[in-house]
């Protein structure tokens, strides 16, 4: 199966760059490069054409493999030449020393040009031989035209966002709830285990989660954990303990497993709990985890999911339990899921496609993953019989005879081969992450960019393309969305186990990514050239790792707590180095870092590094640097030489060097401590490309810098997100004369009142979080006029004496989805038709200072969830109960029937009825 095009995507632009005057290549060599570029472009198109075919002849497969490997070698050679030329100092010292230096520099440059000429001559011979083989095999080189701009398909978001709306879930959910809660012939107080079993893709996890969400409110504590094929028992048991107790235990990962088990058992000994253990692969995993789950005669429940029947039986044998076999979807529900995904409704299928759709559904065998995957593929194609027949004929035997993992692979591979070539590499890259890993969208897109999977030079455009790629993979059901924000943006994703199984297999076959789950495994199976290496085990095995040929490595991802990192000079062409969470990595481990001239992305977050190398400025191509949560306290002066640096993530106590204001390529800067780098304030305005800025103010002395800080901020016209973390009032923000055409998110410190610049002119502001001394009706109107405001979070010390009315004007808060307001004395009223799209409401107030609780919750027509936090301190039980009852009545009267959570704080500080009576008598006696 040939799928990706090697390094072609980043190689061809490099060849084009070599033809410019900057590299001063002689005419003959330029002609060779032009020929080489044209030939490789033709080969790239042939590779893309080959990648669309599920079945490939062996000789074509070998040809494609050789082309890909050659593309890596060519790019390595050219990249080395370009780096040496680009890093050759332009400023030379004068005098005799300068003459010697210039002579050596010219000699070195000449040698480099001679070397690249020799390399190109050798490459030409290899390319010519591959070209003749291509002609002999008659490989078609039609090109594929990629898709246009993509947005998230909201129909698919709905499927994942609300499990209650999933097709065919209600029946199995009711059956499972009955099995769990009906005591049957045994004691209702015994622990009961239900083992859900079925082939991958049948929806076991979805079903377990739906039951869990429905029932967990009936139990005192609960937990949901994924076990997976290679379980980390300390991590799993730690998660269970954290979830059931609600406590965030410090450094729990360092505890002994027995200590975690004993702590969990002690807590659960008298609790009624429900625990979901998802995706158990072997009996030993269950035996380890069940040690923490006590049979305490409190009516507790456990749900397990597994693909293996004997594992499910083992889970049921210890406690009172039964096996629940997940059934495929009925034909009716299969059609419903299939048609809704493609056409948006059950009866939207064109008449001429109904017969062929029945044949496709038959081959999907009622497996939701298969149905959704094929439907997503068809949704992206023209609705013609020819296209649908092509998909049908490619499925092969399908699931109608044997619903096995191999058949699921065949189903998934059809959708895989339907991907454009630029998405194949992006999806294959996901095999670098372990099972059940929550992959952050921004992290993934950045890695795609620095791996060269997204062509182009403009960073903003690259990221937009990356978002399109990410959204397209979701739309095609190749990845599953997680953490969907109020903007309907998917902030993270995960890969279904069966998809991960498929892409890991393909990635290994393509020598695209080498995943090592245990370094102790034999290195005989390792490829001769490793391009991308992901270690997913902390086990020792440094000698075996050093024995590998890592000279061709482009990206390296290590697990936390690793001791395996070889010396960095082993990776001469490394582009991406991710050491996040590796606590054993100290400053001595990164001594050779400055020689990684090709490095684009360096992640040292959550390591024990205390300082960066003095010559960090040598990394001229570095674009991302993340040193958060390290012991680094200052940046070396040479960091200002990183003129390509786009994103810098540091802690607010890190000191910036002189000249930092000249780094005008920066687009993200977080966090900057004003007290640590006051000299930088005046230079901040020079960073005019900044899109995201987070600053911190901790001292009152900064007032002397208010004017230069204000002047600098006003120059940042491209700012998209601004956050100021301040422990002191920041009144200067009120008077800023900003031109904030691009501001999307603002999180400010404490202000006396709402700044005047927050008004309807902010056409892009969607998220606002502020603390105000006072909130007035005029402020409510200004906030309501923000045209695209989606999330509003306010902390207010004082509200106007009269009630603040939200919804006075029909056009106020038309887009608001989330609203949070905290104030000692709550004085607000939601009028009819107020906030027509509000779904999530969070109010916090003191009962003692609030005169009434008729806030008009019944008028919020789209409300789904309201959280009311009441401070009971100093209030009578009667008044607290009155507030609670009034709020519940209003919510009950809301036609949308939202869920209401009333959370009482400081109940122990309430005035009891007896205390109130004594208090009244005392007042009478004093009178």
Question: Explain this structure to me?
Answer:
GO terms for molecular function: ADP binding. Keywords: Coiled coil, Leucine-rich repeat, Nucleotide-binding, Plant defense, Repeat. InterPro entries: Apaf_helical, Disease_R_plants, LRR_dom_sf, LRR_R13L4/SHOC2-like, NB-ARC, P-loop_NTPase, RX-like_CC, Rx_N. Belongs to the disease resistance NB-LRR family. The chain has about 950 residues and is of the alpha/beta class. Helices cover about 35% and strands about 15% of the residues.
Tags for this entry?
single chain; 927 residues; alpha/beta; Rossmann fold; 17-stranded parallel sheet; five-stranded parallel sheet; 25 helices; 27 strands; 16% strand; globular
Question: Roughly how many Å apart are the termini?
Answer: 93 Å
Unreliable spans are 89-108, 141-148, 396-405
Structural class: alpha/beta
What level of helicity do the residues show? 25-40%
Reported for the largest beta sheet, the result is: 17 strands, parallel
Outline, from the CA principal axes? Answer: globular
Q: How confident overall, as mean pLDDT?
A: 80
The radius of gyration is 31 Å
Beta fraction? 15-25%
**Count of DSSP-assigned helices:** 25
**Beta-strand segment tally:** 27
